Amino acid sequence: MTVITIDVVSDFICAWCFIGKRQLDQAVRLYQKTYPGGRNDEFRITWRPFYLGYSDSATSIHKLELADTKLAHMTPEQREMLGRRMERIGSSVGINFKWGGKVGRTYDAHKLVYMSRSMSTDAQNELVEKLFRAYHENEQDISCKDHLRTFAASVGLAEDQVNECFESPTIEESLKEEAELYRAQTEGCGVPTFLIQGEYKLSGAQDVQDFMDLFVQVKENHA
Protein backbone atom coordinates (compact mmCIF):
# COMPACT_ATOMS: atom_id res chain seq x y z
CA MET A 1 0.00 0.00 0.00
CA THR A 2 1.16 3.52 -0.85
CA VAL A 3 0.12 6.56 1.17
CA ILE A 4 -0.22 9.63 -1.04
CA THR A 5 -0.26 12.90 0.91
CA ILE A 6 -1.80 16.04 -0.54
CA ASP A 7 -1.79 19.49 1.05
CA VAL A 8 -4.37 21.74 -0.58
CA VAL A 9 -3.87 25.48 -0.10
CA SER A 10 -7.14 27.26 -0.81
CA ASP A 11 -9.86 29.62 0.35
CA PHE A 12 -13.56 28.81 0.30
CA ILE A 13 -14.61 31.99 -1.49
CA CYS A 14 -12.33 31.16 -4.44
CA ALA A 15 -14.33 29.72 -7.35
CA TRP A 16 -11.23 28.15 -8.89
CA CYS A 17 -10.51 26.43 -5.56
CA PHE A 18 -13.94 24.77 -5.66
CA ILE A 19 -13.36 23.67 -9.25
CA GLY A 20 -9.91 22.38 -8.28
CA LYS A 21 -11.39 20.37 -5.41
CA ARG A 22 -13.89 18.69 -7.68
CA GLN A 23 -11.15 17.81 -10.18
CA LEU A 24 -8.99 16.41 -7.39
CA ASP A 25 -11.92 14.32 -6.16
CA GLN A 26 -12.44 12.97 -9.68
CA ALA A 27 -8.75 12.15 -10.04
CA VAL A 28 -8.64 10.21 -6.74
CA ARG A 29 -11.72 8.20 -7.71
CA LEU A 30 -10.30 7.50 -11.18
CA TYR A 31 -6.94 6.39 -9.78
CA GLN A 32 -8.52 4.05 -7.25
CA LYS A 33 -10.82 2.59 -9.90
CA THR A 34 -8.39 2.17 -12.81
CA TYR A 35 -4.80 1.94 -11.55
CA PRO A 36 -3.70 -1.63 -10.69
CA GLY A 37 -3.93 -1.96 -6.92
CA GLY A 38 -5.03 1.68 -6.63
CA ARG A 39 -8.00 0.85 -4.42
CA ASN A 40 -5.52 -0.32 -1.75
CA ASP A 41 -3.62 2.98 -1.70
CA GLU A 42 -4.52 5.68 0.79
CA PHE A 43 -4.93 9.39 0.10
CA ARG A 44 -4.31 11.70 3.05
CA ILE A 45 -5.59 15.13 2.07
CA THR A 46 -5.10 18.10 4.39
CA TRP A 47 -6.73 21.45 3.67
CA ARG A 48 -4.47 24.39 4.43
CA PRO A 49 -5.66 27.98 5.00
CA PHE A 50 -5.31 30.84 2.56
CA TYR A 51 -6.99 34.18 3.18
CA LEU A 52 -7.87 36.02 -0.02
CA GLY A 53 -8.99 39.14 1.84
CA TYR A 54 -11.49 40.24 -0.78
CA SER A 55 -13.08 42.63 1.70
CA ASP A 56 -11.59 44.71 4.50
CA SER A 57 -14.98 45.03 6.16
CA ALA A 58 -15.46 43.36 9.54
CA THR A 59 -19.02 42.54 8.47
CA SER A 60 -20.17 40.65 5.41
CA ILE A 61 -21.08 42.50 2.24
CA HIS A 62 -23.14 41.41 -0.75
CA LYS A 63 -21.17 39.62 -3.45
CA LEU A 64 -22.46 42.01 -6.11
CA GLU A 65 -21.10 44.94 -4.11
CA LEU A 66 -17.71 43.24 -4.05
CA ALA A 67 -17.93 42.52 -7.79
CA ASP A 68 -18.63 46.19 -8.48
CA THR A 69 -15.29 46.99 -6.85
CA LYS A 70 -13.15 44.11 -8.06
CA LEU A 71 -14.49 44.10 -11.63
CA ALA A 72 -14.86 47.84 -12.06
CA HIS A 73 -12.41 47.72 -14.99
CA MET A 74 -14.77 45.45 -16.94
CA THR A 75 -17.80 46.44 -18.99
CA PRO A 76 -21.19 44.88 -18.12
CA GLU A 77 -20.86 42.71 -21.24
CA GLN A 78 -17.43 41.47 -20.14
CA ARG A 79 -18.72 40.70 -16.66
CA GLU A 80 -21.62 38.76 -18.11
CA MET A 81 -19.26 36.78 -20.34
CA LEU A 82 -17.02 36.02 -17.34
CA GLY A 83 -20.01 34.79 -15.36
CA ARG A 84 -21.16 32.53 -18.19
CA ARG A 85 -17.64 31.15 -18.58
CA MET A 86 -17.38 30.29 -14.90
CA GLU A 87 -20.84 28.70 -14.99
CA ARG A 88 -19.81 26.58 -17.99
CA ILE A 89 -16.57 25.44 -16.34
CA GLY A 90 -18.35 24.79 -13.05
CA SER A 91 -21.06 22.76 -14.77
CA SER A 92 -18.39 20.48 -16.24
CA VAL A 93 -17.47 19.32 -12.71
CA GLY A 94 -20.99 19.38 -11.28
CA ILE A 95 -20.97 22.87 -9.74
CA ASN A 96 -23.98 25.17 -10.11
CA PHE A 97 -22.45 28.59 -9.45
CA LYS A 98 -24.77 31.29 -8.12
CA TRP A 99 -23.75 34.87 -7.58
CA GLY A 100 -26.05 36.05 -4.79
CA GLY A 101 -25.48 36.06 -1.05
CA LYS A 102 -22.83 37.68 1.07
CA VAL A 103 -19.08 37.41 1.38
CA GLY A 104 -17.13 37.86 4.60
CA ARG A 105 -13.93 36.79 6.28
CA THR A 106 -13.22 33.06 6.24
CA TYR A 107 -11.15 32.82 9.42
CA ASP A 108 -13.76 30.86 11.38
CA ALA A 109 -14.46 28.49 8.47
CA HIS A 110 -10.75 27.64 8.31
CA LYS A 111 -10.75 27.10 12.07
CA LEU A 112 -13.48 24.49 11.70
CA VAL A 113 -11.52 22.64 9.05
CA TYR A 114 -8.42 22.81 11.26
CA MET A 115 -10.41 21.19 14.07
CA SER A 116 -11.76 18.52 11.72
CA ARG A 117 -8.23 17.22 11.08
CA SER A 118 -8.62 15.17 14.25
CA MET A 119 -11.29 13.20 12.40
CA SER A 120 -11.02 11.06 9.27
CA THR A 121 -9.88 12.41 5.90
CA ASP A 122 -13.41 11.73 4.64
CA ALA A 123 -14.97 13.88 7.37
CA GLN A 124 -12.55 16.72 6.66
CA ASN A 125 -13.28 16.48 2.94
CA GLU A 126 -17.03 16.43 3.59
CA LEU A 127 -16.81 19.60 5.69
CA VAL A 128 -14.75 21.36 3.01
CA GLU A 129 -17.29 20.33 0.36
CA LYS A 130 -20.16 21.70 2.48
CA LEU A 131 -18.38 25.03 2.91
CA PHE A 132 -17.70 25.38 -0.81
CA ARG A 133 -21.26 24.43 -1.73
CA ALA A 134 -22.78 26.72 0.88
CA TYR A 135 -20.95 29.74 -0.49
CA HIS A 136 -20.91 29.08 -4.23
CA GLU A 137 -24.18 27.20 -4.78
CA ASN A 138 -26.48 27.97 -1.86
CA GLU A 139 -25.62 31.69 -1.48
CA GLN A 140 -24.93 31.32 2.25
CA ASP A 141 -22.66 33.54 4.28
CA ILE A 142 -19.92 31.20 5.57
CA SER A 143 -18.65 33.83 7.98
CA CYS A 144 -21.89 33.34 9.93
CA LYS A 145 -21.21 31.21 13.00
CA ASP A 146 -24.73 29.80 13.05
CA HIS A 147 -24.20 28.34 9.57
CA LEU A 148 -20.77 27.06 10.57
CA ARG A 149 -22.14 25.30 13.64
CA THR A 150 -24.68 23.50 11.46
CA PHE A 151 -21.98 22.31 9.05
CA ALA A 152 -19.76 21.21 11.94
CA ALA A 153 -22.52 19.19 13.59
CA SER A 154 -23.36 17.49 10.28
CA VAL A 155 -19.86 15.96 10.06
CA GLY A 156 -19.68 14.95 13.72
CA LEU A 157 -17.80 17.81 15.38
CA ALA A 158 -19.04 18.18 18.95
CA GLU A 159 -20.36 21.48 20.24
CA ASP A 160 -17.48 21.87 22.70
CA GLN A 161 -14.99 21.35 19.85
CA VAL A 162 -16.69 24.05 17.81
CA ASN A 163 -16.68 26.46 20.75
CA GLU A 164 -13.00 25.75 21.32
CA CYS A 165 -12.04 26.39 17.71
CA PHE A 166 -13.90 29.72 17.65
CA GLU A 167 -12.53 30.92 20.97
CA SER A 168 -9.05 29.42 21.31
CA PRO A 169 -6.19 31.91 20.78
CA THR A 170 -3.86 28.93 20.33
CA ILE A 171 -5.78 27.67 17.30
CA GLU A 172 -5.96 31.17 15.87
CA GLU A 173 -2.19 31.60 16.23
CA SER A 174 -1.48 28.17 14.75
CA LEU A 175 -3.62 28.96 11.71
CA LYS A 176 -1.97 32.33 11.28
CA GLU A 177 1.48 30.72 11.24
CA GLU A 178 0.29 27.99 8.88
CA ALA A 179 -1.26 30.50 6.49
CA GLU A 180 2.00 32.45 6.35
CA LEU A 181 4.00 29.26 5.72
CA TYR A 182 1.80 28.10 2.86
CA ARG A 183 1.44 31.56 1.37
CA ALA A 184 5.21 31.50 0.90
CA GLN A 185 4.91 28.15 -0.88
CA THR A 186 2.23 29.50 -3.23
CA GLU A 187 4.16 32.68 -4.08
CA GLY A 188 3.73 33.39 -7.77
CA CYS A 189 1.25 30.53 -8.14
CA GLY A 190 -1.93 31.65 -6.44
CA VAL A 191 -4.64 29.29 -5.23
CA PRO A 192 -5.55 26.56 -5.34
CA THR A 193 -2.13 24.99 -4.94
CA PHE A 194 -1.71 21.25 -4.46
CA LEU A 195 1.46 19.97 -2.77
CA ILE A 196 1.75 16.24 -3.38
CA GLN A 197 4.00 13.98 -1.33
CA GLY A 198 5.95 17.05 -0.20
CA GLU A 199 7.74 17.07 -3.55
CA TYR A 200 5.40 18.02 -6.37
CA LYS A 201 3.36 21.17 -6.85
CA LEU A 202 0.32 21.79 -9.04
CA SER A 203 -1.32 25.21 -9.17
CA GLY A 204 -4.71 26.28 -10.41
CA ALA A 205 -7.70 24.13 -11.30
CA GLN A 206 -5.69 21.35 -12.86
CA ASP A 207 -6.94 18.77 -15.33
CA VAL A 208 -7.77 15.35 -13.87
CA GLN A 209 -5.03 13.76 -15.96
CA ASP A 210 -2.39 16.06 -14.42
CA PHE A 211 -3.28 14.69 -10.99
CA MET A 212 -3.34 11.14 -12.30
CA ASP A 213 0.13 11.45 -13.80
CA LEU A 214 1.54 12.58 -10.47
CA PHE A 215 -0.27 9.88 -8.50
CA VAL A 216 1.21 7.24 -10.78
CA GLN A 217 4.67 8.81 -10.47
CA VAL A 218 4.42 8.76 -6.67
CA LYS A 219 3.28 5.13 -6.76
CA GLU A 220 6.08 4.02 -9.05
CA ASN A 221 8.71 5.87 -7.03
CA HIS A 222 7.44 4.18 -3.90
CA ALA A 223 7.57 0.78 -5.61
CATH class: Alpha Beta
- Strand and helix order: EHEEHHEHHHHHEEH
Radius of gyration: 18 Å
Total number of distinct structural domains? 1
| Backbone shape | globular
Give the number of helices. Answer: 9
Domain DSBA-like thioredoxin: 5-213
GO molecular function: oxidoreductase activity
Pfam family, one: DSBA
Organism: Pochonia chlamydosporia 170
Can you walk me through this structure?
Pfam families: DSBA (PF01323). This is DSBA-like thioredoxin domain-containing protein. It comes from Pochonia chlamydosporia 170. With 223 residues, the protein is of the alpha+beta class. It has one domain: 3-Layer(aba) Sandwich (Glutaredoxin), CATH 3.40.30. The chain is built from nine helices and six strands. Helix 4 (107-116) packs across helix 7. The N and C termini lie close together (9 Å). The mean pLDDT is 93.
Write a compact overview of the structure shown.
GO terms for molecular function: oxidoreductase activity. With 223 residues, this protein is of the alpha+beta class.
Highlighted features:
single chain; 223 residues; alpha+beta; Glutaredoxin; four-stranded mixed β-sheet; two-stranded antiparallel sheet; 6 strands; 13% strand; globular
Helices and strands in order:
Elements (H helix, E strand, L loop, with lengths): L2 E8 L4 H20 L7 E8 L11 E2 H8 L5 H17 L9 E2 L3 H10 L4 H16 L8 H10 L4 H9 L1 H17 L7 E4 L3 E4 L4 H15 L1
Parallel strand pairs: 1-2
Antiparallel strand pairs: 1-5, 3-4, 5-6
Helix pairs in contact: 1-9, 4-5, 4-7
